[in-house]
Amino acid sequence: SQTIHQWPATLVQPVGSPLSLECTVEGTSNPNLYWYRQAAGRGLQLLFYSVGIGQISSEVPQNLSASRPQDRQFILSSKKLLLSDSGFYLCAWSVNIGAFSNQPQHFGDGTRLSIL
Amino acid sequence: SQQGEEDPQALSIQEGENATMNCSYKTSINNLQWYRQNSGRGLVHLILIRSNEREKHSGRLRVTLDTSKKSSSLLITASRAADTASYFCATDATTGGFKTIFGAGTRLFVKA
């Protein structure tokens, strides 16, 4: 069966520090991968998605970047964190059927990031 | 602007009652999905309904879709305290690229 791992679960970082959040998927090949941010009590904002190794699409201009160095690994990074980067970050995967289709997404348990 | 918007924002019911949540969207869709999120956790996919379907069932869940009104509803029958969570609808758009858009969610609280 497929599983998705996301870590760390919580993170407290000072303003201006770098960030690296990692997400890995097991039990499937060539998935679509997603990074979302969720503000408290709100819906999800899509930050990045990837349809293959090295292929990253950014949805919103921001202080963050994403990379996909391996098929089932998705990394969210920042060189210098801002206060506004605080939030709940979720990684997800879906089956890649070769063309966009609103397939069910499977989420990790998230990383709660607090910037001080 | 939001593609999917849930209504109500919050709902509090007694155990055993039915819970109905609604979702409205703006543009044509290929399908609509409902997700559940327990506090502090990731989202869990509940059900997907395609644009050519009108109703779908899964256990105690019943989802309807009215494409003429651009709306969907999620009914949870005989609710349990364990159903306490936030529920989100998610839609794609038939135009505009590769994106699934989530609404802000309905927070359901089921009192034992």
Biggest sheet architecture of chain B: 6 strands, mixed
Question: How much strand of chain B?
Answer: over 45%
Helix-strand category of chain A: mainly beta
Spatial shape of chain A: globular
Distance between the termini of chain A: 39 Å
- Spans of at least 5 consecutive residues with low confidence of chain B: none
Number of strand elements of chain B:
11
Helix content of chain A: under 10%
Measured between the Cα atoms of the first and last residue of chain B, the distance is 37 Å
Oligomer: heterodimer
* Whole-number mean pLDDT of chain A: 92
- Any idea what the radius of gyration of chain B is? 13 Å
Task: Label the structural class of chain B.
Answer: mainly beta
Written account of the structure:
The complex is a heterodimer of chains A (116) and B (112). Helices cover 0% and strands 55% of the residues of chain A. Chain A has strands at 3-7, 10-13, 19-26, 32-38, 44-52, 55-58, 65-70, 73-78, 87-94, 106-107, 111-115. In chain A, strands 2, 4, 5, 6, 9, 10 and 11 form a 7-stranded mixed sheet that branches. In chain A, strands 1-3-8-7 form a 4-stranded antiparallel sheet, with no helix packed on it. In chain A, strand 4 and strand 5 form a beta hairpin. With 112 residues, chain B is mainly beta. Chain B has strands spanning 4-7, 10-14, 19-25, 31-37, 43-50, 55-58, 61-66, 71-76, 85-91, 101-102, 106-111. The A-B interface holds A 6, 36, 41-44, 46, 49, 51, 57, 59, 88, 90, 92, 100-102, 104-110, 112 and B 2, 29-31, 33, 40-45, 48, 88, 90-92, 97-105, 107.
Topology (elements, then pairings):
The complex is a heterodimer of chains A (116) and B (112).
Chain A: E1 3-7, E2 10-13, E3 19-26, E4 32-38, E5 44-52, E6 55-58, E7 65-70, E8 73-78, E9 87-94, E10 106-107, E11 111-115
Parallel strand pairs in A: 2-11
Antiparallel strand pairs in A: 1-3, 3-8, 4-5, 4-9, 5-6, 7-8, 9-10, 9-11
Chain B: E1 4-7, E2 10-14, E3 19-25, E4 31-37, E5 43-50, E6 55-58, E7 61-66, E8 71-76, E9 85-91, E10 101-102, E11 106-111
Parallel strand pairs in B: 2-11
Antiparallel strand pairs in B: 1-3, 3-8, 4-5, 4-9, 6-7, 7-8, 9-10, 9-11
